[in-house]
């Protein structure tokens, strides 16, 4: 009897387990799904491991702090929690998640609630060449009721002031603009350009909006507002004052319908003064057209069909580019990298003139230190721009070159970044990091990537004198680098760093191509021969590159990637063949580390290296990256640094410190070899 009862319990438990895990992940289960990822301050995610229990798990800001964002549906009077209801109201049921999918621009979850099925489509547009669409700091959530029986259905959604970075003192308001119903929530008393400890913007407003014919709205304490929906399906259209934990909410009454029906919400975070560029405010590009937030979000809602059509085209391009470059493992990686990369960037114009002929772009070094327009971060990211939006290289570089031309900057080499703390692009601090060869080489690569991909010589012409200064710095200092930091600043300042000398050699060859002066190209080749053929930067037998001249361990060099991409031939084929043979011999459990003394690797530089090798070496770089991305050990927004072997309490394949960095554009390095500027829309 007793054992039979136990058996029955075990059976019941296994049924429950099989129900809750009956979820299909397509193409794989990523560490974290982007939900609303459009700017450094609109960056909401859900860990891959929480997708199966979406109904009771909260969205998270990139830093991991929780955000209130729920979807609840009534189906013929019964209430189902579809998403983000951590404390389910009495009498409600959790919906069952059956499918979780990501593409370059959408994260989609299919859930069953009673007799009906819903799809939650979290869609963050990436519009590489449409600055208006790209700059709108909003993201879509479309809830689609699948065709089914003729039950009566209402769909509810709310957010709270956690989206403002401040939960202690906020205000909210409701307004309409055209057909859009718009809530805004703002923190009280925050300094402009200030962040909380999680990196959220404290100034500006969180925005939640929707439009529809049978819409009701309400703001107030969370339990009051949700109870109103659960009991009635319709909200009260009344607006209580802000209270801690309170929500702003919408309910769409779809009525009694057997048809497929969809409602769309827009979530966002707006800052009129978005970036402080050298003491003057920049604002979002979209403000040239839509000065007021309600009009901007109303336009965003109206733009849904066009944005969605574009997203399908972009998803297809990324998918086909990935597959033709290296199969579906590679396209899975690329698709997950797109929103994270563009979501670290903002497109701006001067707040005062709103002049769109004076457009700039700013990128945040999310999670690693918050620097703004870090040159080596742009270098890591550039392959995606090379393919999808080469103009971004100019938009990101121009603010750096303009700053370097001011009297505040007196160095004869390129700067590391233009401010320690995004969004304050107020200049490189006196005690900031100096990476002279690193950044001088990088600005030349980036300027040429722009020129080669677009055919435009305007950047090289406008900044000719500065570019020459940085090339001269490389020529005078690059073959035997003094003890300088490289972008791998964790290694400290090392003299004669082989990878820096490679950067200088390829940088000079690139400068020759940029300005059409073969003498620089010749120097680049001579240095390439010294470093490789004469073994200055290799082991005595010439089988691998070393970290420093004559000093072990080996190093994963990636700075000759631009040599291949641009077809410069600064390094001989033997060098590429040797690394092709070598890297598979130093692969650890979960991948190739950055050098022979480290237990961790970086997906950015593994991806650059993958593009410089062939055969087995390329296979292991791509397979290991795919395995790391889908191994189920990680839950942070994609981290580009991970343990390739077990270390301390970490297992091989676990991420290490970084998260949500826009540097994932690096994953496109291999794809970029097959062509520049292939996106048009
Ligand atoms: C919904 O509820 C009504 C009233 O209880 C009932 O008549 C109807 O059959 C139900 N519809 C469905 C599809 O279950
Ligand atoms: C940016 O500068 C302002 C002062 O102008 C300061 O209040 C704010 O905290 C700074 N932001 C960051 C992220 O450091
Ligand atoms: C409940 O909803 C109906 C419409 O479906 C509305 O007429 C009524 O006022 C609501 N009751 C309350 C208490 O909100
Ligand atoms: C930005 O522009 C708005 C609208 O013209 C203005 O109210 C605000 O003062 C400006 N901010 C700054 C810092 O110039
Ligand atoms: C750099 O390498 C060269 C050639 O091996 C050597 O002469 C020089 O002393 C090294 N510089 C430093 C700072 O170690
Ligand atoms: C160099 O190659 C020779 C011949 O293959 C080998 O005996 C020697 O051990 C190698 N030296 C090093 C430092 O790898
Ligand atoms: C490099 O490897 C390829 C493929 O194995 C081979 O065809 C080529 O001859 C090699 N080139 C050199 C310079 O070793
Ligand atoms: C794809 O990646 C997985 C690891 O996620 C690996 O096991 C598999 O071999 C790879 N497939 C191909 C065709 O490289």
Automatic annotation (TrEMBL):
Domain named Glutaminase A N-terminal: residues: 105-320
Entry's transmembrane regions: none
Signal sequence annotation: 1-22
Keywords: Signal
Pfam families associated with the record: DUF5127 (PF17168), GtaA_6_Hairpin (PF16335)
Keyword Endoplasmic reticulum: no
Domain Glutaminase A central: 327-670
Domain of life from the UniProt record: Eukaryota
PANTHER family linked to this entry: GLUTAMINASE A-RELATED, PUTATIVE (AFU_ORTHOLOGUE AFUA_6G09910)-RELATED
Protein name per UniProt: Glutaminase
Organism: Penicillium atrosanguineum
């Amino acid at each position: 009897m007793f054992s039979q009862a136990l058996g029955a319990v075990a059976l019941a438990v296994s049924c429950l387990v099989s129900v809750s895990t009956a979820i299909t992940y397509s193409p794989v289960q990523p560490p974290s799904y982007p939900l609303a990822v459009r700017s450094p301050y609109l960056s909401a995610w859900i860990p891959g491991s929480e997708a199966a229990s979406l109904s009771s798990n909260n969205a998270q800001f990139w830093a991991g702090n929780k955000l209130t964002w729920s979807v609840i549906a009534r189906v013929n009077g019964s209430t189902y929690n579809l998403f983000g209801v951590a404390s389910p109201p009495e009498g409600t049921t959790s919906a069952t998640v059956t499918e979780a999918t990501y593409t370059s621009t959408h994260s989609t979850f299919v859930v069953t609630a009673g007799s009906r099925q819903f799809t939650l489509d979290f869609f963050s547009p990436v519009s590489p060449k449409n600055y208006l669409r790209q700059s709108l700091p909003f993201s879509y959530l479309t809830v689609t009721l699948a065709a089914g029986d003729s039950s009566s259905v209402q769909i509810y959604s709310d957010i709270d002031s956690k989206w403002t970075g401040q939960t202690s003192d906020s205000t909210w308001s409701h307004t309409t603009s055209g057909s859009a119903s718009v809530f805004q929530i703002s923190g009280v008393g925050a300094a402009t350009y200030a962040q909380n400890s999680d990196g959220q913007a404290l100034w500006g407003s969180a925005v939640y909006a929707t439009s529809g014919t049978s819409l009701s709205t309400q703001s107030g304490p969370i339990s009051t507002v949700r109870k109103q929906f659960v009991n009635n399906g319709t909200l009260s259209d009344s607006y209580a004052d802000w209270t801690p934990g309170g929500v702003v909410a919408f309910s769409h009454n779809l009525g009694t319908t057997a048809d497929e029906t969809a409602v769309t919400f827009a979530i966002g975070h707006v800052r009129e003064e978005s970036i402080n560029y050298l003491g003057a405010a920049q604002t979002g590009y979209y403000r040239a057209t839509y000065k007021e937030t309600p009009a901007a979000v109303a336009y965003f809602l109206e733009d849904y069909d066009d944005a969605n059509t574009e997203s399908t085209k972009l998803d297809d391009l990324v998918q086909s580019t990935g597959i033709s470059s290296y199969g579906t493992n590679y396209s899975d990686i690329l698709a997950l990298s797109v929103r994270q990369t563009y979501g670290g960037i903002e497109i701006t114009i001067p707040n005062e003139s709103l002049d769109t002929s004076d457009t700039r772009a700013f990128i945040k070094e999310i999670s690693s230190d918050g620097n703004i327009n870090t040159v080596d971060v742009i270098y890591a990211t550039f392959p995606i721009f090379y393919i999808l939006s080469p103009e971004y290289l100019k938009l990101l570089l121009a603010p750096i070159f303009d700053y370097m031309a001011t009297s505040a900057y007196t160095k004869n080499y390129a700067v590391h970044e233009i401010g320690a703390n995004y969004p304050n692009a107020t200049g490189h601090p006196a005690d900031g990091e100096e990476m002279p060869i690193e950044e001088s080489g990088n600005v030349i690569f980036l300027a040429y990537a722009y020129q080669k991909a677009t055919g435009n010589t305007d950047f090289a012409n406008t900044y000719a004198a500065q570019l020459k200064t940085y090339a001269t710095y490389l020529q005078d200092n690059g073959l035997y680098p003094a003890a300088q930091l490289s972008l791998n600043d964790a290694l400290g300042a090392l003299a004669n760093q082989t990878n820096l000398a490679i950067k200088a050699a390829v940088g000079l060859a690139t400068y020759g191509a940029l300005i059409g002066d073969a003498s620089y190209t010749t120097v680049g080749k001579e240095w390439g021969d010294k470093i490789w053929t004469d073994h200055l930067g290799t082991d005595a037998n010439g089988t691998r590159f070393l970290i420093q001249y004559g000093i072990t361990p080996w190093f994963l060099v990636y700075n000759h990637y631009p040599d291949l991409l641009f077809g410069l031939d600064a390094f001989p084929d033997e060098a590429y063949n040797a690394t092709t043979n070598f890297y598979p011999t130093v692969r650890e459990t979960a991948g190739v580390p950055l050098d022979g003394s480290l237990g961790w690797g970086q997906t950015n530089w593994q991806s650059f290296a993958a593009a410089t090798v062939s055969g087995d070496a390329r296979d292991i770089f791509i397979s290991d990256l795919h395995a790391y991305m889908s191994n189920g050990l990680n839950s942070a927004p994609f981290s580009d640094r991970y343990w390739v072997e077990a270390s301390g309490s970490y297992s091989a394949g676990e991420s290490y410190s970084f998260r949500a960095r826009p540097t994932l554009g690096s994953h496109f390095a291999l794809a970029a070899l097959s062509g520049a500027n292939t996106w048009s829309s």
